[in-house]
Fold:
Amino acid sequence: MALYVACKTGDIDKVREIIDLGANVKNRISKAIQLACADGRTEMAQWLWSLREEGYPADITGRDNYAIVHACCHGHLKTAQWIWSLRTEGIDVDVAAQDNTIIKTAYRDERKPMIAWLWSIWEEGANLDIAAQDNYALRAACKRGDLEMAQMIWSRRNEGWAVDITACDNASIRLAHVGTPMTHAYHQFSEPPRKTYTPLEVMQWIWSLRKEGADVDITAVDNNAIRAACFPPDLARAQWIWSLRKQGADVDITARDNEAIHRVCTCGDLEMAQWIWSLRAEGIQVNLDGTKAIASLCNNMSLRSEQKCLAVMQWIWSLREQGVVVDLTANNNRTMQRACRAGCESIARWIWSLQDEGIEMDISANDSAIIKEACRSVAACGSHSHPAIRAFYQSLSWLLTLYHPSEVIEQLLERYPSGIVHDALVLHVKCRQTKSARSAI
Structure:
């Protein structure tokens, strides 16, 4: 209604006009104050509060202290301080309402002035709990890479707070790999962190707390920490976690059916994949499903460097000598299809060259699926000169040279009188004719 809109915009004159017109707002003043506070309209909230002297009922602590909770959550320190000052008038304002949402949000969004004020009123007797909601504030600081904030929260243990670095199944050390500021709807009100530390630095600090009696478990949730270090790949972090075995940690890099090495292969990180595989020399039962690893890599090929993907594929292929099963023709030559669709000509050519090693590659299998994949993106853009699809056209051209053009192209055009394959083939023929004409000139 008009009253609430005016309160949220801070238009006192409009609110007075609404009241003077005789609008029935008597029972709506409390909500109006709450909305004004939530939007940081301190003067509006103060003016509405003064209407109590005119007989208008107003409750600033209603809806579980909505006013101060939302003023703080939205970063309106001045408004929150005014609401808190009403305690001198006997108003029972509770900053710990809604399960200490205020302090949780202040730490999550790194609002240092708000945090400083909260601690000042805590010293005055406010019943804040920094360990509320399973130590959310501490976990958020670790995920954000704000080590200084995490250390400050941890130091509050000396004041009797139930701060627990192992809360939520050791989430602080498991999720430290996030390493970037948390996003939030009201992040524009936040100050930037003092310094963002690397996930490894945060994890090393958390691990060091074992000397203070913290029961930190780096292997929690089925070795989540080292598995997370493999996706995206972070070799330094993974190697540090692995080194903790010397301190008695039962780190298992083969957890969840060797998920770590498969994730690394999917990301196209050859160095890290080779490091994990080398652990077999230490007796670690690292196993790799070569067919599955290459298939996963192919599904994400468009997001990776073509040369990195090729290097990982060739390395996996070489592991056949060590007993790793690799089938590049599985699922109707799916690997070749994906390479062509992603425009990775060097990969497609390498796969094709494996026929010299006895691999049977049927380029027309599955109703010429390989050619159709190469055609798909070419036809979508309509011009092979478009930079974004030049690579796709090159793959298509190369594929067609594997056939006798005068026979195969005509057959494919008859088979596909319309659609993606037809359009791409027509484009190819036109471009080939243009090229021939230019050569003749």
